[in-house]
Design brief:
Layout: H1 4-28, E1 47-48, E2 58-61, E3 66-70, E4 73-77, E5 84-88, E6 95-105, E7 108-120, E8 123-134, E9 147-150, E10 154-157, E11 177-184, E12 187-192, E13 195-201, E14 211-216, E15 223-233
Antiparallel strand pairs: 1-15, 2-5, 3-4, 4-15, 5-14, 6-11, 6-15, 7-8, 7-14, 8-9, 9-10, 11-12, 12-13
């Protein structure tokens, strides 16, 4: 007859095996590729998300870093504390979003999509998919356009495939860069400066709707500019 300790060891072994199998299946799963052309970004159905003068319609979440309007642009400046997000007060479901951004000082950033707030002790934590934008393309990994699970699991769609190589050199480190995101149903696709990037499927539909947020990543430095933020709801 097996003891309780033996049953516990057997049960733990089964759980570990199942977890390893699930992880292996995830690792072996072929990454989908975005082969679509960047959506058309002109037309009356696109609405501006920024009036060029104020941050009306936006709220700062999670951290205390400063966002301000300077010369018709949104400017976020890194300082002490956790990553900070400037988030739309309105939530969106299916849409095409586009913006232009540049780095005055090197820094990591991104745009939250279909994200939400988790109430944690002492702060409102932003969770959800983020289209990564980083000023590291010519000296680092160059994953701008990939999709990261902010505070909810890490990389959903890293740019590791050989087909993603053109994205390594697409970032203009001294000028403006265009990020375009299309979300429809549970399919998320991104483009950086017109080049296809991510094609991620939210298989469990964990993020069916939510706000859009601009990130200034926690760290020692970073000054990021945004302009031409607009959205077309589908």
């Amino acid at each position: 007859m097996r003891t309780k300790q033996q049953f516990f060891i057997l049960f733990s072994t089964i759980l570990i095996s199942l977890g390893t199998l699930a992880q292996n299946n995830q690792n072996n799963k072929k990454q989908l590729l975005n082969t679509d052309k960047e959506p058309k970004l002109k037309g009356r159905k696109f609405k501006s998300l920024f009036d060029g003068k104020t941050l009306n319609g936006w709220s700062t979440q999670q951290g205390t870093m400063k966002f301000e309007v300077i010369n018709g642009e949104i400017v976020g400046t890194c300082s002490a504390g956790p990553s900070t997000f400037l988030c739309t007060d309105k939530e969106y479901t299916d849409f095409i979003f586009t913006c232009e951004m540049k780095w005055e000082v090197d820094g990591n950033s991104g745009v939250q999509i279909r994200s939400r707030i988790r109430k944690d002790p002492n702060r409102n934590t932003v969770i959800g998919p983020q289209a990564e934008m980083e000023d590291l393309a010519k000296k680092g990994r160059g994953w701008s356009g990939g999709i990261y699970g902010q505070n909810c699991g890490g990389w959903f769609y890293p740019l590791k495939a050989p087909e993603h190589k053109p994205l390594k050199d697409t970032i203009d480190r001294s000028g403006w860069n265009r990020l375009t995101i299309k979300v429809e149903g549970n399919v998320f696709k991104t483009w950086v400066n017109g080049i296809p990037a991510a094609h991620w499927i939210d298989e469990e539909n964990e993020f069916p709707t939510g706000f859009i947020g601009l990130q200034v990543h926690g760290g020692k430095q970073g000054v990021i500019h945004w302009r031409n933020l607009k959205i077309r709801e589908l």
